[in-house]
Amino acid sequence: MPIESTAERVQNRGICPKCGKVVPAHHEERDNKVYLVKECTDCGRMDALVSSDARRYNEKRDLLNYAGEARKTCSLLCASCDRHRPPTLVFIDVTNRCNMNCPICLANIPAMGFRFDPPMAYFEKIFERLSRMNPKPRIQLFGGEPTMREDLIEMIKLARKKYGLLARVVTNGLRLADEAYCKELTSTGTQIMFSFDGRSPEIYRRTRKHPEAYERKMKALENLAKYRKSKITIMCCVSPNVNGEYLSDLVDFCHEQRHCVKALDLIPLTAHWGPEEVEAQSATIEDVEKLMAQAMPGIEFFPAGTMAALETLRSTYDIGRVTFGGAHPNCESVSLLISDGKKYHPVTKYMKNSMMQGVRELLALDKAMGERLKTSPLARLFGRKGRQLSYGLALYGFARRNVNMPEVFGGAALPRILKIGWGLLLGRKVKDLLRAYTRCHGILRLIVLPFEETECVEAARLVECPAAFAYEHPETKDVRLMPVCSWAINKNAILRVTADKYGVDHGTGQDGLTALNGTT
After folding, report:
1. Is the Cβ–Cβ distance between 455 and 48 less than 8 Å?
2. What is the C-alpha to C-alpha distance for residues 232 and 221, in angstroms, rounded to an integer?
3. At residue 508, what are phi and psi to the nearest 5 degrees?
4. Which run of H or E residues covers position 37?
5. What is the C-alpha separation between 173 and 291, in angstroms, rounded?
6. Quick one: CA dihedral 298, 260, 233, 127, positive or negative?
7. Which residues contact 153 (CB under 8 A, 6 or more apart)?
8. What is the rounded distance in angstroms from the CA atom of residue 236 to the CA atom of residue 208?
9. What is the dihedral of CA 488, 172, 144, 238, to 10 degrees?
């Protein structure tokens, strides 16, 4: 049945996977699953699974008071639109050459059918446009495999030194197995987003056709631990029948490498992303959450867009834009794992209530504090500091109600809290104080990060997407932004024109025209 709402109806839209037209769309629930249903006048009715758990899907919407099919919508004509909201995170395709050419990938030469390797002038044009944004977004250099470009390090330095843009590199990591190259790349200070699906060659055989990649990835991680300037993020494609059983081991690996790894991004796999299907099951966001719950009993996820809803907290403590702030409740979801020095535990181990209950109470508290601070005596007397103190006292009450203090402190809480406070006044690092006076010795951030295929793209989720790809428009030649999940639909046509205009910069190298085993 369609998802009902008493809110004013806003027409959602999707894309017909057969003819590519923008068509009316709505959601239906059947057997505790959620489907995006599209009605195309030419091709008929089609539906696509968007969630394997309708209860969880709706719980996330209820948390953020998201009613109806859509709060806002858009034309979904992304290739001709220049009204994307200012993004916090911008991806830039730098090449489609790759030294793996995985069959599940949409962004390599075999999948795209042409080579994309524009000269530095193309990227400088994009950097100049992004540098004029306020605040400047974070940028991620994407591919293909970015390390195939011999001028990648020059590109990173150009972005930072001339345009003030901090670039992260999304990489399969194979070239970082070369110790000298790894040292040179990390010397730039760039953050590394490292593709790693688990500790078994069999995983890479089944989804990427390259079991030999595993050993090179392990060597690259060893080099990163030695030379990295900042902690890295692990990016893991998740399929229930390929690496679902390895997720517990992956978390253990992240703990072993906690001096080097700060975050784990979990990407639900779509088995037919690339030019050929693989022996893997596709996954939805809720599938990944369930697999993690099996690997880490007690773990809970909540919508990444929640942080944007804490408006009073953010304004009181001058918290800037959050990377996925404002994301649709059914897009990215996040959780935290806390180390006790021996292993990671779900944050719920340290809570009296469930995470969703705690988040729900925090949202209510934030709304109430928005009114309370208007008449707060502390705020009137001490201004900004008074508002922070007033909100801080409210947060202390929230913590007393929701945090299991004996579990956190391993004893009497107050003396240890006072010691932490005194340490902060003396300028000691928070992480050192937590290790000394609590059982919380480190945090691993988890985020389920979907990249949607055509069948699941909908206007309701794209219209406020905080992440985008930057590119040169093939007709107007100006730099445009496009929501990440619609980029895969439009990028081939756009980048082919760009490739024809700029040609191939052969000075960027010739590696990556073939895969690891020598096949194209």
Report:
1. yes
2. 10
3. -80, -5
4. strand 33-40
5. 25
6. positive
7. 184, 185, 188
8. 13
9. -20
In the numeric block, which tokens belong to residue 289? Answer: 């959450």
Distances (CA, A) of 369 to 60, 258, 296, 306, 499: 23, 36, 34, 17, 53
The domain limits of the chain are 1-51, 84-341+444-455, 355-438
Residue type present at position 448: V
Host H or E run for residue 431: helix 430-437
- CATH no. of 84-341+444-455: 3.20.20.70
Buried b / exposed e along 329-366 (16+ C-beta atoms within 10 A): bbbbbbbbbbbbeeebbbbbbbbeeebbebbbebbebb
Distance CA 246, CA 254 (A): 12
Q: Report the DSSP beta bridge partners of residue 170.
A: 193
44-51 and 333-339 strand pairing: unpaired
Say how far apart CA 159 and CA 153 lie, in whole Å: 10
Residues 6+ apart with CB under 8 A from 186: 192, 224, 227, 228, 229
Say if residues 321 and 88 touch (Cβ distance below 8 Å).
yes
In three-state form (DSSP H/G/I as H, E/B as E, the rest C), the secondary structure along 46-88 is EEEEEECCHHHHHHHHHHCCCCCCCCCCCCCCHHHCCCCCCCC
Q: What is the pLDDT along the chain (520 residues), one digit of tens a residue?
A: 344 343 446 899 999 989 999 999 999 999 999 999 999 999 999 999 999 999 999 999 999 999 888 888 899 999 888 777 789 999 999 999 999 988 888 889 988 999 999 999 999 999 999 999 999 999 999 999 999 999 999 999 999 999 999 999 999 999 999 999 999 999 999 999 999 999 999 999 988 889 999 999 999 999 999 999 999 999 999 999 999 999 999 999 999 999 999 999 999 998 665 556 667 788 999 999 999 999 999 999 999 999 889 999 999 988 877 777 778 999 999 999 999 999 999 999 999 999 999 999 999 999 999 999 999 999 899 999 999 999 989 998 999 999 999 999 988 888 888 888 788 777 788 788 888 999 999 999 999 999 877 889 999 999 888 999 999 999 999 999 999 989 989 999 999 999 999 988 777 878 877 644 443 3
Measured CA to CA, the distance from residue 31 to residue 252 in angstroms comes to 35
Q: What Rg, from alpha-carbon coordinates, does the chain have?
A: 24
Grouping H, G, I as helix, E, B as strand and the rest as coil, residue 106 is coil
How far, in Å, CA of 32 to CA of 288, rounded?
16
Q: pTM above 0.70?
A: yes
User: What are the residues whose beta carbons fall under 8 Å from the beta carbon of 57, sequence distance 6 or more?
Assistant: 34, 50, 51, 286, 330
Residue 396: CB atoms within 10 Å: 12
